[in-house]
TrEMBL record:
This is Glutathione hydrolase proenzyme. Belongs to the gamma-glutamyltransferase family. Its EC number is 2.3.2.2, 3.4.19.13. The active site is at residue 358. It comes from the Bacteria.
Length: 547
């Protein structure tokens, strides 16, 4: 049981709740709900709003995953992960000697996959939306034209990224940089004139406002100027795909999460199944035994991820074997509380220091429809490449492929054949948008950014609520730790794991590595009387708004 002097609850709503990484996006989502839109209208509005007010991860030049649950219990998922362009090939980031060319898959024009966000939002709206599309996208157009008031965190992030923006663009990417060197500061207003016009084209022409016509021309022109390979055909051929989410049980709860090409859902379900036989509540929150058990589950799942997971449209992912209870029981057979496990059989991955700027939002409407979306450009501001004249950033998602077997990506994750590059293939992800049911009723909506730490952050947040009795707000605030098989280290946030717990784990053979904040979880918990508690992560500018 988690013990805290005073219970901290997030905002409570009776009729709906929107939790996002930015106050402007949460306001826009809430307004859509209040004027009669459903959770899907609000989700579409929030995706476009984040593209304006949260350029580090919000996007129209990237992709993501949506897991949904209608009020009647129907579930589904939309895969809008970026795709490798037709001209991409397996060894495109290697030199003649077969060595990885530093940063080629990470920054600049060649790092970008074909964006999926706009096609996805149009599909969501067309299938499930209630309000006219124009009403749903207009608040973001107005925000872009009026300008976004910078928060302190966003101003600092932009200042830190100034050199990278100049390095990776052929034109200065205004307004994310300034011509003079005056730094951005809290309260400054950034006006996105070109982006407003791009959003207007999407409003007026739908798909053709992005994947054809002027916007497509600008993307292809940008590619040519900077040596990228996304073509008009790539844009025309892009299509988001409706998929069946993965689902499993944990102590009577039903966990619904994202299927490949995200590893998130499978890894989450594996980890939950591996710890299920234990009474974590009794073992206590972040005690040595609880941490050890969770770390060993994480180690085994992330090893499977590296070997077996990739885009299931291209590679036969052994989904049923990976989620088989007998297999997972077997997987934990060599686990012992007496000593640390070991990942040394494979070359150790390196841990990158890049910001893990994906973003997640959770929405529940009055009827009980629930949307869990994680969306990204990959690392902060993606490839740093802004499409000149169109005002938006392109992703650097190509780095989520395994550019060479065993060579770690930006997050230190290694991969193999399952996640090699091929034209039209989607790169493996860790994104874990998740919805939980109890007795056939909605219980929780949750997800987070954080690169490779996404799935372990969702794992911990779920256990914080289900096992350690935390409120949604406490569960997202709680300090976190992370293990990903390689490197064989337990990464810990500042306040995670007491000194005593760290000492005991070190003695057992665990390498404890302090690091910067892990994840920014956005969750909604359905309380016993049906009210909704929003939990917005205090690590950022995140905001939960209910009514
Ligand atoms: N780009 C981070 C992820 O998809 O896992």
């Amino acid at each position: 049981m988690f013990v805290q002097a005073q219970t901290q609850r997030g905002p409570i709503g009776k009729n709906g709740m929107v939790v996002t990484a930015h106050p402007d996006a949460s306001k826009i989502g809430l307004e859509i709900l209040k004027k009669g839109g459903n959770a899907y209208d609000a989700a579409v509005a929030v995706q476009f709003a984040l593209a304006v007010c949260y350029p580090a991860a919000g996007n129209i030049g990237g992709g993501g995953f949506m897991v949904y649950r209608h009020a009647d219990g129907t579930i589904g998922a939309l895969d809008y992960r970026e795709k490798a362009p037709a001209k991409a090939h397996r060894d495109m980031y290697l030199d003649k000697g077969g060595k990885v060319i530093k940063n080629l898959s990470r920054y600049g024009h060649l790092a970008a996959g074909v964006p999926g966000a706009v096609d996805a939002m149009l599909k969501v709206h067309q299938r499930f939306g209630k309000l006219p599309f124009k009403e749903v996208i207009q608040p973001s157009i107005d925000l872009a034209a009026r300008g976004v008031v910078l928060t302190d965190k966003e101003a600092q992030r932009l200042n830190k990224s100034r050199n990278a923006f100049f390095d990776h663009n052929t034109q200065p990417p205004y307004p994310l940089v300034r011509n003079d060197k005056t730094p951005f500061k809290k309260g400054d207003v950034t006006i996105y004139t070109d982006l407003a016009k791009t959003l207007e084209r999407i409003r007026d022409k739908g798909r053709d406002g992005f994947y054809a016509g002027k916007t497509a021309d600008l993307i292809v022109k940008e590619m040519k100027a900077g040596g990228g390979i996304i073509s008009k055909e790539d844009l025309q051929n892009y299509s988001a795909v409706w998929r069946i989410p993965v689902a499993g049980t944990y102590k009577g709860y039903r966990i619904i999460s994202m299927c490949p090409p995200s590893a998130g859902g499978i890894v989450l379900l594996q980890m939950l199944k591996m710890v299920e036989p234990y009474d974590l509540s009794k073992m206590g929150w972040q005690t040595p035994k609880t941490v050890q058990l969770m770390v060993e589950a994480e180690r085994r799942s992330y090893a499977d991820r590296a070997k077996y997971l990739g885009d299931s449209d291209f590679y036969p992912v052994p989904l049923h074997n990976l989620l088989d209870s007998a297999y997972l029981k077997q997987r934990m057979k060599d686990f012992s509380f007496d000593k640390a496990g070991s990942s040394t059989k494979t070359k150790e991955g390196k841990w990158g220091s890049h910001s893990e700027e994906t973003t997640h939002f959770s929405i529940v409407d009055k009827a009980g429809n629930a949307v869990s979306i994680t969306t990204t450009l990959n690392s902060g501001y993606g490839s740093y490449v802004m499409v000149s004249g169109a005002g938006f950033l392109l992703n650097n998602e190509m780095d989520d492929f395994s550019v060479k077997p065993g060579v770690p990506n930006i997050y230190g994750l290694v991969g193999n054949e399952a996640n090699s590059i091929a034209p039209g293939k989607r790169m493996l992800s860790s994104m874990t948008p998740t919805i939980i049911e109890k007795n056939g009723k909605l219980k929780m909506v949750v997800g987070t950014p954080g690169g490779s730490t996404i799935t372990t952050s969702v794992f911990q947040t779920i256990l914080n609520v289900l096992e350690h009795n935390m409120t949604m707000q406490e569960a997202v605030n709680a300090p976190r730790f992370h293990h990903q098989w390689l490197p064989d280290e337990v990464f810990v946030e500042n306040k995670a794991l007491s000194q005593k717990t760290r000492q005991i784990l070190r003695k057992l053979g665990y390498m404890i590595r302090p690091r910067s904040p892990i994840g920014r979880v956005e969750g909604i918990l359905v309380l016993p009387q049906g009210k909704l508690e929003g939990g917005a992560d205090r690590r950022g500018d995140d905001t939960a708004l209910g009514y």
